[in-house]
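WARN no homologs supplied; continuing
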Amino acid sequence: MKVWLNLALTAALAWGTSACTVVTDPSSGSSSGGSSSTSFLDRQQQVAQFASVNLEPLRNDMAAGQGEYLDSLATLMEIDASQQAAFRALTRAKFTALFPSDQTTAAEMLTALNREMHSDPRFGQRLASN
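OK structure emitted
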């Protein structure tokens, strides 16, 4: 009986947490006078957190060269709307470099993505100015 109760509790917790969404929007903060740098993740941390939490859907979107997770990543990375189609195409074309194995981590994928974007003339100039 105790085993079944533990299984039911575990399933309920897993179901409850899967419905949660974390939103980190620096523009929605309060104006309490506190330092915003301690209240919000910086852009790079947001990208890393998003990629870590959504790695599998990102992998699928990058393989297809389209999708809401890939579009969200582009937005978090502050890719101009005029360059998002090129960004999606880059991730599809460089998919095997971004995900060389099934065990590729989010941090490894982001490092590879940064490297590929720096070497691409469509993005290299923008990245150099940031």
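The chain has nine helices and no strands.
OK
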